[in-house]
């Protein structure tokens, strides 16, 4: 959908290995895997992260849902 519907280049998308994020900005380790990372450049580094996407099953009620901007 990101490529076909929204025209993001595949080079800017990372699914495997999963992009890892910190639980809090003050944390030193990136412990939590995100399903999809969308970057502003081909270098998949923290300064280039634009969107972090966490996918859930349609009927799941567990976990928390956050929008990171």
> What's the order of the H and E elements?
EEEEE
Strand content: 15-25%
Rounded to an integer in angstroms, the radius of gyration calculated over CA atoms is 13 Å
Spatial ordering of strands, largest sheet: 1-4-5
**First-residue to last-residue Cα separation:** 20 Å
The number of helical runs is 0
Poorly predicted segments: none
| Main sheet summary | 3 strands, antiparallel
Global morphology:
flat
Residues in helices, as a percent range:
under 10%
Give the rounded overall mean pLDDT. Answer: 84
Q: Indicate the structural class.
A: mainly beta
- Write down the oligomeric state: single chain
- Compute the number of strand runs: 5
Describe this entry's structure for a reader.
With about 70 residues, this protein is an all-beta fold. The chain is built from no helices and five strands. It is flat. The mean pLDDT is about 85.
Write a brief structural summary.
It contains no helices and 5 strands. With 69 residues, it is mainly beta.
Sum up the structure in keywords.
mainly beta, 25% strand, 69 residues, 0% helix, two-stranded antiparallel ribbon, 3-stranded antiparallel sheet
Topology readout:
Elements: E1 13-14, E2 19-21, E3 32-34, E4 36-39, E5 49-53
Antiparallel strand pairs: 1-4, 2-3, 4-5
């Amino acid at each position: 959908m990101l490529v076909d519907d929204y025209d993001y280049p595949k080079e800017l998308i990372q699914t495997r290995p999963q992009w890892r994020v910190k639980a809090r900005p003050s944390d030193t380790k990136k412990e939590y895997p995100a399903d999809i990372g969308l970057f502003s450049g081909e270098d998949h580094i923290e300064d280039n992260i634009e969107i972090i996407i966490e996918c859930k099953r349609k009927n799941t009620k567990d976990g928390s849902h956050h929008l990171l901007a």
